[in-house]
Specification:
Elements: E1 4-9, H1 13-23, E2 29-35, H2 41-48, E3 52-56, H3 64-74, E4 80-84, H4 89-97, E5 102-105, H5 110-121, E6 126-127, H6 133-142, H7 157-167, H8 172-179, H9 183-197, H10 202-212
Parallel strand pairs: 1-2, 1-3, 3-4, 4-5, 5-6
Helix pairs in contact: 4-8, 7-9, 7-10, 8-9, 9-10
Length: 215
């Protein structure tokens, strides 16, 4: 099995070296290049030809979001995962709108990071942590019980993608902008998700998905 070629864009030396050292422990990953700022991302992609880009969202000269725009302008988009220490839903939304396929906090485990790389390499979308603080707080207060419900109808890949964004607290309009579909299409997908999961609202859908291990 061919290794997945990964490039890392990170301005902090210790963090960059730490992530690279971590990824080198995986037999599935080959770190082919590193750059220290978003302003060097396009040049790095053209030089190293990575399959997946791991990129800090906050860098001094050019942010990760600006680098995504520069990649699109240069015609060298590759599947990209945003790495950050900031659990900021607005930045996540901006990054996804700019073309990022994934979002991870820097304290992610090796298994989760490799899994994320494999997911976006295969064409998927990953938003982690997908469950916001608001949703997590709701778990203790709502205590939903789904034990007596039959197994739901399988969700499509597109519906799982929408469900992850729902878990991130995004509105239908924000989701439509992120996945480049009309708001009406997203509304229909959300309705289908609720029906398949056997729930009445978006929060219950996320909680049901957690219960089923979908998130």
């Amino acid at each position: 099995m061919n290794k997945i070629r990964v490039m890392l864009a990170e301005d902090q030396n210790l963090v960059r070296l730490g992530i690279c050292s971590l990824l080198e422990l995986s037999e599935r990953i080959d770190v082919v290049g590193q750059v220290e700022d978003g302003s060097h991302v396009v040049e790095g992609i053209q030089k190293f030809r990575p399959d997946v880009l791991l990129m800090d969202i906050r860098m001094p000269k050019m942010t990760g979001i600006d680098a995504l725009h520069a990649m699109r302008a240069a015609g060298c988009m590759v599947p990209s995962i945003i790495l950050t220490t900031f659990d900021d839903s607005q930045l996540v939304l901006e990054g996804m709108q700019a073309g990022a396929k994934g979002y991870l906090l820097k304290d992610v485990s090796l298994n989760s990071l490799v899994g994320a790389i494999e997911s976006v390499y295969a064409g998927g979308t990953l938003v982690q942590p997908a469950i916001t603080e608001r949703i997590l707080k709701g778990l203790s207060s709502m205590e939903p019980r789904f034990d007596n419900l039959v197994a739901p109808e399988s969700l499509s890949d597109k519906e799982v993608e929408v469900l992850r964004l729902m878990a991130g607290g995004f509105s239908n309009r924000e989701i439509s902008r992120t996945i480049h579909k009309s708001e009406g299409t997203v509304k229909n997908q959300v309705s289908s998700i609720l029906e398949k999961l056997g729930v009445r609202d978006r929060t219950q859908a996320v909680l049901r998905a957690i219960n089923l291990g979908l998130l």
